[in-house]
Design a protein that fits this description.
Oligomer: single chain
Bound molecules: beta-D-glucopyranose
Number of strands: 33
Strand content: 25-35%
Shape: globular
Distance between the termini: 47 Å
Helix content: 25-40%
Length: 774
């Protein structure tokens, strides 16, 4: 049904996402796109007032999860029993409205002048509309709300209703409802129990506890009202039900006079407070924000966003739609993860839907890390690394469960608290390349920030555990007289249980090599810490690194002489080689049109696989090798993972194919805004948004880090007049602007910075700029 909708449903604007006119069939998609978040909590763009049409209600508190029981057809040893998911938390946005005795419900009213606007510059959602009830009573509504990034446990709503053609009673019932469900719950279970609740004169709250995991979250509201521009006393009756509290206020509304309800809300979790202290802290927080007032909170929100934009905006001149697309990506990434808490991570859908359970995937290390490295304080990425460090014990347990030993770690494919949450054997047991991405992120962080101390403090311990895993996961083939890696799934999940996936074997030996190098470095530079670690994890450097070295030297990588390409896996060329361009459009996407059996036997590649390796390790390969592999694999790739186009955009840019690079960029940049994959209703593709950023900065900007310096090899996409972006690098903030005939790099910091532009070393003095003819 959704496919019939115009792809240009969202109006183009440089700083806003705009929906004009109410289309109930588009509502669940718009709810995803207009989502709000502040790293600590988030929500879909559900309506405040009741809505009986199609909707997916969603309010989430980061890090609060429930272990839903695994449901599989046939149990296999090693499967995790539970699947942790971020769960739907108490709904704090609800305000039921009665006009006389009719409920305001857009599914049952005549709706006009409907407009939903996500203001990305200032960080709020605004919705305006007129609605006529069955009894012909017409009201005008303006609702503004946000999740505050200044006080990240809070949010606020300003809801204004004006009777247009009548005077009479309007009843407003702001509520907190903890009686919520997850759409994707495995056994239709409800995940919350009530602990306590309370109502006072102008506020109410509920404290809930998750079943099994025992997280407690106190959610509360404080209400203030105005009529015709003047504050009015709130005279409300309390309403209580199971896990539900409300205040019911009847207003004598006067035609043409706006009534405003301010709903100040807060969500406090036992992750940050003792459960017994939640109530007092919640009330203090509510008091604090309500005394600040809505306008001040909104101004603080705008100021906080302005600060973020100053460091991470990308400005595109000459293409408003591309501008809107890239800002939307940056905005959503910043709403999802702020990096203040090393227990939190980035779910592929962020706070915009239930799919992927809010859990952590390799997406974080492979795709999101470059974005946060360049656009945020280094501590943000460090916290992402520490998240994995803290879960190392569980990764070792996870490997043990599969039969590995001696401190080998296999990080989970999907996790919330470090335990594996995925239960398809071909992924859980075989998509082991994720371990490599975690090591690569450490390398990337150190290469970017220069923070070598991290290696001695945390990094090396993780690297050794990962290296131990790889050294046990390979086996010696008598036949080949080489090490092989059997039974794996590469990033291309359209192949399972293959032998010798080139990418997996390549990243495995890279991990071994990197670990040897880091161990040597830490041993010489941080002797004390090194020895403490050796004792803690019983690292026999000589023996273990000798084994690592042996594997590095004798690893088997499949290669095809005829095409002169790295072979995705053994036997790949036995598959019938029909290129994607020769597939009828009616058969795509193949993951919706074909049986799994047919997909597995086909040559089609879901997402960058060999090319993922060439992206990570491009400096190890000459341009001809990269080109041959790109020319071979891209025509066989269906890009049915949103993570695919960005890697291809970057490689195409590197190969000088600017038109293709731009084409791939377009596929990621407006993926959700234009609902390309017909799945935005499930939530936005948050982790692939970081890939969009990479396409611009690493693709069009050609940015790389080499030898402790940033280098740039930019080009301007033909449709654009210019583009510019900010990156932070080792204490300096740079603004890079690429125009038709020149590249301008401003050093906005007090230190001089050396960069490489088109292969030439350049020094930019503090607060100075460099102009290079392009
Ligand atoms: C991709 C994985 C990715 C996951 C979550 C899958 O479709 O194939 O690489 O980790 O989505 O984004």
């Amino acid at each position: 049904m959704i496919t019939i909708y115009m792809k240009d449903y969202i109006k183009v604007d440089q700083w806003k996402i705009i929906e004009e006119g109410f289309d109930p069939g588009y509502n669940t998609i718009a709810e995803s796109i207009f989502s709000l978040g502040n790293g600590r909590m988030g929500q879909r763009a559900n309506f405040e007032e009741a809505y009986s049409g199609q909707t997916l209600s969603g309010n989430y508190v980061a890090g609060v999860y429930y272990p839903d029981k695994t449901r599989v057809g046939w149990w296999k040893n090693g499967y995790p029993e539970y699947f942790a998911k971020v769960i739907n938390a108490a709904n704090w946005i609800g305000i039921d409205i009665l006009i006389g005795n009719e409920q305001l419900d857009l599914a049952k009213c005549e709706v006009s002048a409907f407009k939903r606007e996500l203001n990305m510059k200032e960080g709020y959602l605004k919705r305006t509309f007129r609605a006529k009830t069955a009894n012909d009573k017409e009201v005008e509504v303006e609702a503004i709300r946000f999740c505050s990034i200044a006080d990240d446990e809070t949010g606020a709503i300003g809801y204004t209703i004006t009777p247009l053609n009548f005077s009479g009673t309007i009843t407003m019932i702001p509520f907190i409802n903890g009686d919520v469900v997850n759409k994707d719950s495995n056994y239709d279970e409800k995940f919350w129990d009530e602990v306590k609740k309370g109502i006072w004169e102008d506020g109410a709250w509920v404290q809930l506890r998750t079943k099994k995991t025992g997280f407690e979250v106190a959610t509360g509201m404080r209400i203030a009202m105005e009529q015709n521009g003047q504050p009015i006393a709130l005279k409300a009756q309390p309403v209580e039900k199971d896990k539900f509290v409300a205040l019911k206020a009847e207003i004598d509304a006067v035609q043409g006079q706006p009534v405003v309800i301010y709903k100040y809300a807060a969500n406090l979790s036992s992750q940050n407070y003792a459960a017994a202290e939640l109530e007092d802290n919640l009330k203090a927080t509510l008091l604090h924000i309500s005394e600040k007032g809505f306008k001040t909170m909104l101004a603080e929100q705008a100021a906080a966003w302005a600060k973020k934009w100053q460091h991470n905006d990308i400005i595109i001149e000459g293409d408003a739609s591309a501008q809107q697309g890239i800002r939307f990506n940056i905005f959503q990434l910043n709403q999802t993860y702020t990096g203040e808490d090393d227990r939190l991570n980035i779910g592929p859908k962020g706070f915009t839907g239930e799919k992927y359970g809010g859990s952590t995937y390799w997406d974080t290390e492979a795709y999101c890390v470059p974005f946060y490295l360049a656009t945020a304080d280094p501590k943000v990425t460090r916290n992402l690394l520490l998240y994995r460090y803290k879960q190392l014990d569980k990764a070792i347990d996870n490997a043990k469960l599969l039969g590995f030993k001696d401190g080998a770690a296999l990080y989970p494919m999907v996790t919330m608290d470090g335990a594996e949450c995925h239960n398809e054997w071909e992924i859980t047991f075989e998509e082991i390349h994720r371990n490599g991405a975690i090591a690569y992120a450490i390398y990337n962080y150190v290469r970017y920030t220069g923070d070598e101390q991290y290696l001695a403090d945390y990094g090396l311990e993780v690297l050794i555990a990962i290296a131990r895993f790889w050294s046990q996961r390979v086996n010696w083939s008598d036949d080949k007289q080489q090490y092989v890696m059997l039974g794996v799934t590469g990033p291309n999940e359209y192949e399972n249980n293959v032998n010798n996936n080139w990418y997996t074997s390549t990243i495995a030996t890279w991990c071994l090599q990197y670990t040897i190098g880091v161990a040597e470095k830490v041993k010489t530079t941080e002797k004390g810490k090194y020895e403490a670690l050796v004792n803690k994890i019983r690292f026999d450097k000589e023996k273990e690194t000798a084994k690592f070295q042996d594997i590095i030297e004798k690893m088997y990588y499949p290669y095809d002489e005829k095409h002169q390409v790295f072979l995705q896996q053994d036997g790949y060329l036995d598959k019938e080689q029909i290129l994607v361009k020769d597939l009828p459009a009616s058969e795509r996407p193949i993951n919706q049109k074909w049986s799994w059996d047919r997909i597995l036997r086909s040559c089609y590649i879901k997402q960058a696989d060999v090319l993922q390796g060439l992206y990570f390790f491009e400096d190890q390969y000459d341009l001809d090798t990269i080109r041959r592999n790109y020319d071979f694999y891209e025509p066989r790739t269906v890009h049915e993972s949103s993570l695919s186009p960005c890697v291809h955009a970057i490689i195409a840019a590197r190969l000088g194919d600017q038109a293709r690079a731009y084409e791939f960029y377009l596929r990621t940049s407006r993926l959700d805004l234009d609902d390309y994959n017909n799945d935005t209703e499930d939530g936005c593709h948050i982790t692939s948004m970081a890939g969009t950023w990479m396409s611009v900065v690493e693709g069009f900007g050609g940015m790389r880090v080499r030898d402790g310096k940033l280098s740039f090899q930019p080009f301007l996409p033909a449709k654009w007049q210019s583009f510019s972006f900010h990156v932070g690098f080792r204490g300096a903030l740079l603004n890079i602007k690429v125009s038709k005939d020149c590249v301008q790099i401003k050093n906005l910091s007090g230190n001089e910075v050396s960069v490489v532009v088109y292969g030439k070393d350049q020094l930019i003095k503090a607060n100075n700029e460099l102009l290079v003819e392009g």
